[in-house]
Amino acid sequence: MEDVKLKPKEYSEYLKDRFPIKEGFRTRMEALLGKAGAEEFFEISYTKTPSSIRCNTLKISVTELLNRLKAYGWKLRQPFEKNPEVIVIETKLKPGELGKTREHLLGFYYVQEISSQLPMLVLKPSPEEIILDLCASPGSKTTQGAAMMKNTGTIIANEVSMGRIGILNSNLERCGVMNTIVTRKEGVALCNKLYKKTEFRFDKILVDAPCSGEGTLRKSPKTFLMWNINMIKKIAATQRRLAESAIKLLKVGGIMIYSTCTLAPEENEMIVDYLIKKFDIEVLQINLPLKFRPGVCEWEGVSMDKSVEKCLRLYPQDNDTDGFFVAKIIKKSEGIRE
């Protein structure tokens, strides 16, 4: 990228000039965070996210991987005591260095931002369970789930794009994943077909929905230019269809994670609120060792169910990560309110 020779402050100023904040985006973030909070959000959005990886325990132990990476002179940090596989690289690396090591090529670790690892840490797939990863490519969460399941049970990893399926398959192979079936189908169509033509139900489901990407500004500053309120509303309609079709396939007592890498309430709490009103479900409390903010219960004059407060909002400035949203939902019965 063009910022290779720029110091952090110079890089930030360069991005601010090239990728300005749209006034509508600024107004919305101020409504969510207040003026000072929004300023913090935008300031950190013009900086790089620290490099983080996940040890692939299907191929190597955390201890052995740490020893290998320390031999490169890298300074490493493990932020989660209960999840030692989550590793932050504190050494400043050269562009592309993280993806060129022997250990990466052999699938010993997956380059994965901490926020991206949260949905599977909350879902906690277990050996022998049957899991649906509805929007699976490029495979970061699928490979993470397979490692947590010790390559047992079954993961259905679905992706609609043939090009992205190629990337998904490549990552599954590199990481030694053997408990996964890859399907190619539009997500709603896949769920509806399974729901109407079979009695098959999943123990757990991950809907890591396509989104407007407001939380990914640090690695994709072009999102500043792409931001558009009409796009948010259009994507939200798709997310709602994905989420409601998926929850029908969940076993009673099963867990579904709905997550996005955006901060727009239309794509987050409003989707969960819609599910609460239509299905017999409950939003569960999530406990993770990071600073989170609760879900938003009111947005632009729309009041939502009080339980959406249990959803988690991860803002970049709170933990030096990308932005993210996670909701944990349990299905209490097959009841549907039309």
Give a description of the structure:
With 338 residues, the protein is α/β, with parallel strands linked by helices. The protein has a domain at 115-336: 3-Layer(aba) Sandwich (Rossmann fold). It contains 13 helices and 15 strands. It has helices spanning 8-18, 23-45, 62-70, 97-100, 102-105, 114-123, 140-148, 162-174, 187-197, 223-226, 229-247, 269-278, 316-319; strands spanning 51-55, 76-77, 86-89, 109-111, 130-133, 154-158, 180-183, 202-208, 250-260, 279-284, 293-294, 298-299, 302-303, 312-314, 324-336. The strands form three sheets. Strands 5, 6, 7, 8, 9, 10, 11, 14 and 15 form a nine-stranded mixed β-sheet that branches. Strands 2-3-1-4 form a four-stranded antiparallel β-sheet, with helices on one face. A hairpin with a 2-residue loop joins strand 12 and strand 13 (302-303). The protein starts with 7 loop residues before the first helix and ends with a strand.
Under the CATH scheme, which architecture of one domain would be assigned? 3-Layer(aba) Sandwich
Number of strands: 15
Q: What amount of the residues lies in strands?
A: 15-25%
Mean pLDDT: 96
SSE run: HHEHEEHHEHEHEHEHEHHEHEEEEEHE
CATH topology of one domain: Rossmann fold
Shape field: globular
The CATH superfamily of one domain is identified as Vaccinia Virus protein VP39
Give me the secondary-structure category.
alpha/beta
Alpha carbon gyration radius: 20 Å
Segments where pLDDT lies below 50 for 5+ residues?
none
